[in-house]
Amino acid sequence: MLKKISIVLALAVSGCMVSEEEKPAGSGKKNEEVNVYTHRHYAVDRKIFRQFFRETGIYVNVIDDDADKLLVRLEKEGKNSPCDVFMTVDAGRLVRAKEMGLLQPIVQEKILGTVPANLRDNEGYWIAQTVRARVIIYSKDRVQPNQLSTYEDLADPKWKGKLTVRSSDNIYNQSLLASMIAHNGREAAGKWAAGIVSNLSGDPKGNDKDQVKAIAAGQADVSFVNTYYLGQMMESKDAGEKDAIGKVGVFYPNQEGRGAHINISGAGIAKYAPHKTNAEKLIEFMLRNDIQAMFAEANDEFPARQGVKVKPALAEWASFKTDTLDLQKLGELNKDALILFNNANWK
Amino acid sequence: MTSPFKTIRWGWFLLALLPVIVCSIPLLFVLVSATQIKGDELTDSFRFFSTGSIANTLVLCVGVLLLSLVLGVGSAYLFATYRFFGSRFFEIAFVLPIAIPGYIMAITYASFFNYSGLFYQNTGMYFNMMNMWGLVFTLALCLYPYVFITALHAFKLSSGNYNESATLLGIGRKKMFFKIALPLALPAIIAGAWLVFMETLNDFGAASYYGIRTLSTEIFRCWQIGPSVTVFLSLCILVFIVATMVIIQRYLDKKGYYQPSKSKPVQKIKLTGWKNLVVAVVCFNVFLFSFLLPVGILIAYAMQFGLEEGEGVRLWARTINSFQLAAIAAGVILVFCVINSYSKVIHRVRKTRALNFLSDFGYAVPGAVLAIALLSVSTFFDASLGTIVTGTFLFLIIAYMIRFYTVARGPVENMYNKLPQNLFNASASLGKKPLGTFFKIYLPILLPAFGSIFLLVFIDVLKELPITLILRPFNFETLSTSVYGYAKVNESVGQAAPYSLLIITLGVLAVLMLKRIEKKYGINKG
User: Fold this and answer.
1) Nearest Cα to B218, choosing from B46, B64, B34, B371?
2) Nearest alpha carbon to residue B141 among B43, B63, B47
3) Using CA atoms in the order A331, A299, A247, A318, what is the torsion angle rounded to 10 degrees?
4) What is the separation of C-alpha A227 from the centre of its chain, rounded to a whole number of angstroms?
5) A126 and A268 in contact (C-beta within 8 Å)?
6) How far apart are CA A320 and CA B224, in angstroms?
7) Choosing among B210, B489, B509, which should be mutated to test the A contact, i.e. which has the most A CBs within 10 A?
8) I need a labelling partner for B228 at 20 to 30 A (CA). Which of A266, A280, B122, B374 fits?
9) CA–CA gap between residue B107 and residue B120 (Å, rounded)
10) Number of neighbours of residue B175 by Cβ within 10 angstroms
């Protein structure tokens, strides 16, 4: 028996690796590849990388992990880092990467010019690929849209016991609070966080989709989530998820004022990128009209580039007014946001 | 002429030292970093630190330990002493949950009971899993097998002789359990509970998803402010482990435990009537909640979501990746562990407690923190050696060794300790060199045991996530990195389901193989 097992094991271990993606011989040569560290573990990204390879012959090597860990890896690797492009889903982290000295500026105007100024670093250290809004969702059964107005209003005692949120460990919440600090000042933002906490129906937990489900189940009436999760749930293969999203309405807050809070998914070129030209090519490619449309179609994210045609559901959302705050602020105020969350006891 | 027993064999000694040195890397890292803790950064960061996390960690550890002990020890005693409907099946079935990673158990249960889950959709009843009790429940369900495995073995070993004597002396069954069986099995139970304790301490994924702040999640969160708090908290964990270990050892020493040797097989008592029924029903329920239900939920998801175009190839490739990686890592870890322990036989060192916690530390700190420590080490080599080791398979394997050396160390040492030292001495006096003695005597006797320890480590590597994520080479996906991507980043348990199921399948196959070896050779990892 043991012999048999060892034979099977030995065979399996020595068995050849199965390649899951096309990668022709010779692609290991320098200047024919580009290395990406990304937080985005999305199928559409891989599809786009494959198309990039087909069109340019440059193979995209990927490692994906939590952005904070990837930043540590980049920092520790220093000059030896193989990373060319760093991609993540929050402006705050891109700012952090810049502040840590891990990126180099993109200078080409043909890349920078494709997105509005508020969606990129003013010195070109990072640039958005896609945009996501953090919007209010509400129970269609228990809340009328005309009861809703702004993020600020959710801290009002009239919502006592009716809110559900995810943890303040989450970067999307941190950036939302950072934007509140930028607009209303530290004191008001702190009060807002405390107001939200006192209106909660239960401890913060779960992810964005869980907030939708909690409302559908009647555990709470109002929350905020990122738009693309809503889109994904509407198209989900899971009947339960579709049912849940059917029970909630989407509300774009602060339309009378600054507009709904947005964040970006973006990229920057690593400071010691061994394949800098390829990195520029990849970033430029991801901002091309048709590729931007792919992000929108598959992942329900808004294109960073203006004027890209998207599916009707997204187009409707895209028509709302969004905050034009310089996204750099989200990074600069991240630490303040963490302090305020902690003071407010927002778990 | 010098006695053959007193020389230090430097080759063996140095080889044995290697894993000890490697495993002490994270500890050294923490200690070195501790000297760089900035006071103001620390005080600054403590404004973010949630003190409630300490209480939460205690409650979580105690809760998971208690539930694991009740489930693991209770069932082990039952199977060792009684025969009842399905008892032979349950004896294997109760080990299976070890194949389910904690984070998969947690997200699966949460998704089952939330609004879109099967339970709510079919019953309309809302049941909130995502709290402390839910976390204790889900973690204990996949960790209790660690206690069960060791306890079952101990009960089987000790019960024969003592049970007979005790019965002759007219001692009742209840008294027999508490006064005889339990104390005899205690060292083994503690060994299993120790693993459960450390697994609970290092859990990050399940706790953060359930919104429970523990030392593990705080270490990660405070790190956004600066490394000082992370290092400080790692030190706290270190002190916590060492203190617990010292207390346990003191206790065991005071009691003067010894390893029960093999006794004659026990005559199991056959349960009949309602007792038979009740016990079988209880066992079935444990199996239901710890294995059948989570696996059933995942199968339902996998069927609902189906496979996307080209996903079959992806699944297959990643299964192979996971399998190869886990098998190689487990093999390497086992070899070093066997050499290390054999060196202790050669040098007649039976106890090396002081060194043990070096490797235990690597197991008890949160994986993400260990990953960072390892990154510091690998990038240091990158810069000083001139070749890049970060992101290579070699370093990934070393990382696994640091992480899981503890899992193999205890059982391997135990196996050696069960064999009399005279075995080695006799062989030595007959002129055999240590290497010859190992291959001619030790290896043939211990090979099956090594096989089962290999499988245990294999299962652990298979389930590992944070280290694999950050230290793997480019474009290298395993089953668990896929589960992370789908379940965490895409927030879709459904898309992650086939990958989760494959992890569990590989783990279950390993468990079945392990049971086969045990049955055939009558051994266990005690």
Assistant:
1) B46
2) B63
3) 70
4) 10
5) yes
6) 33
7) B489
8) A266
9) 15
10) 11
What the block records as the tokens of A218 is 């009647």
pLDDT, tens digit (0-9, with 9 covering 90-100), for A241-298: 888 899 999 999 999 999 999 999 999 999 999 999 999 999 999 999 999 999 998 8
Of A2, A21, A65, the CB nearest to B447: A2
Answer positive or negative: Cα dihedral of A88, A90, A91, A93. negative
In which residue are the tokens 């950036």 written? A175
Cβ contacts of B481 on chain A, cutoff 8 Å: 64
Return the half-sphere exposure (C-beta side, CA atoms, 13 A cut-off) of residue A13.
15
Q: Which of B292, B311, B310 is nearest to B496 (CA)?
A: B311
Q: Assess contact for A55 and A4: CB atoms under 8 A.
A: no
Kindly compute the dihedral angle of the four CA atoms of residues A163, A168, A174, A179, in this order, to the nearest 10 degrees. 30
Q: Are A215 and A221 in contact (CB under 8 A)?
A: yes
| Backbone phi, psi, residue B82, to 5° | -120, 160
DSSP for B421-453 reads HHHHHHHHHTT--HHHHIIIIIHHHHHHHHHHH
Within 185-224 of A, beta carbons closer than 8 Å to B belong to 202-210, 213-214, 216-219
DSSP classification of residue B180: I
CB contact under 8 A, B208 and A239: no
Structure token pair of residue B240: 């916590």
**pLDDT tens for residues B449-490?**
888 889 989 999 999 988 898 899 998 999 999 998 888 877
